[in-house]
Amino acid sequence: MAAPQRSTSTNPWFRMNAMHRAIGVVLILVGGVWFFQGIGVAEGSDMSNNPWWAALGAAFFVAGFIVLYRANVAAKRTIAAEQEAASAADAGSGVAPADDPVEGDDGDDRPDAVQRHE
Predict the structure, then answer these.
(1) Are 29 and 36 in contact (CB under 8 A)?
(2) Helix, strand, coil shares of the chain as percentages rounded to 5?
(3) Is the pTM of this model over 0.85?
(4) CB-based burial label for 31 (10 Å; 0-12, 13-18, 19+)
(5) Does 32 fall in a domain?
(6) pLDDT in tens, 8-21
(7) Which long-range contacts (CB under 8 A, 24 or more apart) does 109-113 make?
(8) How many domains, in total, are found in the chain?
(9) Are 78 and 16 in contact (CB under 8 A)?
(10) Do residues 13 and 25 lie in contact, with contact meaning Cβ atoms separated by under 8 Å?
(11) Is residue 2 part of a domain?
């Protein structure tokens, strides 16, 4: 059985561990519902107008954001490490980066060429 292939996206949301992302979103949603029931905005249950549920909902809401934040930081570290490894591999291969065809050097007289003056 082959290992699942990792995403190559540089967007941390797509690189987060799917379980952490799901847990964070569920905690935020459940915490929001419990909070609004606890403060009396959402009526219709024994949880309505009960400060215990408002406090518990707020705690779940904050915990959900903490889970998502930590997963986001871990994904950003992974992306940075992969980019650093790729740039080190490129530098070690001895291959020079290709010239950008739009940007020209000082001797380029094309109208779209960018003149560099250093």
Answers:
(1) no
(2) 55, 0, 45
(3) no
(4) buried
(5) yes
(6) 778 887 888 889 99
(7) none
(8) 1
(9) no
(10) no
(11) no
